[in-house]
Amino acid sequence: MNNPDCLFCGIVAGEVPSEKVAETDLAMAFRDINPQAPTHVLVIPKRHSPTLTELAGAHPDAAVGVLTLAHQVATDEGVAGGYRLVCNNGARAQQSVFHAHAHVLGGRDFAWPPG
Ligand code: AMP
C-alpha cells in the first residue's frame, strides 16, 4: 500500500508534514504547497498508485473515494458552486508527483482551454 520512495505516501503516513483538510478511509486531502488559486487542495488515495489510470483500473473504489472527497472539500471550502478539478495523468500532462491525485481549485475565475 505504501511506497517508501513516494512523497505523498510519506504524507499519508504522517512522515512528511502537510496541512490536512479532510480524510476518509480511502482518501486524504491537504493544501498544495504552491497554490494556484485561493483554494488549492490535493486529494489523494491513501493506497499508492502512480497514476489515476492505474488507480481506476486496479482500485476503482479508491478512485471513487478521491472524487467523493474532492467534492466534499469543495463544499467545505465554499467553492462547490464553481470549481475546477484537475487530474494531470502522466508526464505528458505535466504530472510531477507519481502518486495519483486530483487538484481542487476554486475561489477565482478560470480560463479555457487550459495550457
Ligand atoms: P502534479 O503536477 O499534478 O503532479 O501536481 C503535484 C502538486 O504537488 C503540485 O501542485 C505541487 O505544488 C504539489 N506538492 C509537491 N510537494 C508537495 C508537498 N510536500 N505538500 C503539498 N503539495 C505538494
Briefly characterize the structure.
This protein has 115 residues and is of the alpha+beta class. The chain contains three helices and five strands, in the order αβββααββ. Strands 1-2-3-5-4 form a five-stranded antiparallel beta sheet, covered by helices on one side.
How many individual β-strands? 5
Q: Give the low-pLDDT segments.
A: none
Cα shape: globular
CATH superfamily: HIT-like
- Structural class by sheet pairing and helices: alpha+beta
Ligands and ions found: adenosine monophosphate
CATH class: Alpha Beta
Largest beta-sheet details: 5 strands, antiparallel
* Amount of beta strand: 15-25%
Helix content: 25-40%
Task: Write down the domain tally.
Answer: 1
Distance between the termini: 33 Å
Count of individual helical segments: 3
Overview of the molecule:
This protein is an alpha+beta fold. The chain has one domain (7-106): HIT-like (HIT family, subunit A), CATH 3.30.428. It has 3 helices and 5 strands; from the N terminus they run αβββααββ. It has helices spanning 7-13, 52-58, 60-77, and strands spanning 20-23, 27-31, 39-45, 83-86, 102-106. A 5-stranded antiparallel sheet has the order 1-2-3-5-4, with helices on one face. Helix 2 (52-58) packs across helix 3 (60-77). The termini are far apart. The mean pLDDT is 97. Bound molecules: adenosine monophosphate (AMP). Adenosine monophosphate (AMP) is lined by residues 7, 16, 18, 32-34, 42, 88, 94-97. Adenosine monophosphate binds next to loops.
